[in-house]
């Protein structure tokens, strides 16, 4: 998949394509429906299919002091686009200049002049331009004047609930990673480089790989059954997220114990998929009682993962 940053001097391979536009945080099943319409339109027209996203997230630009729970940081979002079969992705800087563009200028300068799309696809709740002055109806009118078609994708969902990034964040904050996985179409995953920890896990008989969560990610504290990916390898594991109340009650940490694994993961990048919630966080009266509970947690994680389909 070709990645283009910015809208000026876009290469010819990404011009004249079918372009899905949005934030796509999570690349959940609703977002996938938008991408699928772009892919279908591309096949019908024998052109390339791509997606346009904005970085940073507009909410981060307008409220820089308020952390946002990003479901998919940019690098993971681009990986998911590639896995979904897109030919290209466009990353547009969301800065003061972009924020000041009217809806008409966004359509003419960014879209028509920048990429000359044959087709633009958006979700039903897509707003653009200064003051969110543009919507799918306005974009369709602008596209007709500027020479590109516009398709709007209606809400996707099931059981009376729409797939949405907001709802997925709520489910993760509740620890309902299975519910979030249903909306995402895959297990929610975080990535990070393993860093040295305090060594308490090893002292308890459960050496852990520790990674930092991105600022704003608010998964419920507790123990989870997880799968850990390193390169092309996957390992079952149990993960703890929380402030370690038995010891220091400090800043939340993510500590992952890999079942049936021995080796050094320091300074290596791993991905952690949250498969199921096991229990909430708690303070233990001693390190020994914590170690006993950790053994039970790992046994439960093993039981869960043995019956779960690998994503």
Question: Helices, strands, pairings?
Answer:
Blueprint (H helix, E strand, L loop, with lengths): L1 E4 L12 E4 L7 H17 L3 E7 L2 H5 L11 H10 L4 E6 L2 H4 L3 H13 L3 E5 L12 H11 L2 E5 L3 E2 L2 E2 L2 H9 L3 H8 L3 E6 L6 H4 L5 E3 L10 E9 L2 E10 L10 E6 L10 E12 L6 H21 L4
Helix pairs in contact: 5-6, 7-8
Sum up the structure in keywords:
alpha/beta, elongated, 14 strands, six-stranded antiparallel β-sheet, 311 residues
Short structural summary:
The chain is an alpha/beta fold and 311 residues long. It has helices spanning 29-45, 58-62, 74-83, 96-99, 103-115, 136-146, 165-173, 177-184, 200-203, 287-307; strands spanning 2-5, 18-21, 49-55, 88-93, 119-123, 149-153, 157-158, 161-162, 188-193, 209-211, 222-230, 233-242, 253-258, 269-280.
How helix-rich are the residues, as a percent range?
Answer: 25-40%
Molecular shape: elongated
Strand residue percentage: 25-35%
Instruction: Give unreliable regions as ranges.
Output: 201-205
Number-wise, the strands total 14
> Overall mean pLDDT score?
91
| Lateral arrangement of strands in the main beta sheet | 1-4-3-2-5-6
What's the number of helices? Answer: 10
Terminal Cα span: 21 Å
Structural class: alpha/beta
Largest sheet: 6 strands, parallel
CA radius of gyration: 22 Å
Order of helices and strands: EEHEHHEHHEHEEEHHEHEEEEEH
């Amino acid at each position: 998949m070709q990645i283009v940053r910015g809208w000026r001097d876009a290469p010819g391979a990404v011009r004249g394509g079918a372009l899905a536009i949005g934030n796509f945080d999570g690349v959940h099943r609703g977002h996938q429906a938008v991408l699928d319409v772009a892919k279908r339109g591309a096949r019908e027209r024998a052109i390339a299919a791509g997606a346009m996203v904005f970085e940073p997230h507009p909410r981060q630009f307008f409220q820089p002091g308020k952390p946002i729970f990003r479901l998919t940081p940019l690098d993971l979002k681009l990986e998911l686009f590639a896995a979904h079969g897109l030919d290209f992705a466009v990353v547009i800087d969301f800065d003061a200049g972009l924020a000041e563009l009217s809806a008409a200028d966004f359509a003419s300068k960014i879209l028509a002049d920048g990429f000359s799309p044959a087709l633009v696809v958006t979700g039903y709740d897509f707003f653009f331009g200064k003051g969110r002055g543009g919507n799918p109806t306005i974009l369709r009118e602008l596209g007709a004047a500027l020479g590109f078609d516009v398709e709007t994708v209606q809400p996707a969902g099931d059981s009376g609930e729409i797939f949405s990034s907001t709802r997925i964040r709520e489910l993760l904050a509740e620890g309902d990673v299975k519910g979030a996985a249903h909306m995402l179409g895959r297990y929610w995953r975080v990535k990070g480089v393993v860093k040295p920890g305090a060594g308490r896990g090893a002292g308890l008989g459960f050496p852990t790989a520790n990674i930092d969560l991105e600022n704003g990610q608010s998964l419920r504290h507790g123990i989870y059954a997880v799968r850990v990916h390193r390169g092309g390898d996957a390992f079952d594991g149990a993960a703890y997220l929380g402030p370690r109340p038995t010891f220091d009650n400090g800043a939340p940490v993510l500590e992952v114990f890999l079942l049936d694994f021995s080796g050094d993961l320091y300074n290596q990048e791993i991905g952690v998929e949250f498969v199921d919630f096991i229990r909430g966080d708690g303070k233990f009266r001693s390190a020994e009682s914590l170690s006993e509970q950790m053994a039970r947690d790992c046994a439960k994680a093993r039981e869960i993962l043995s019956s779960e389909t690998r994503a």
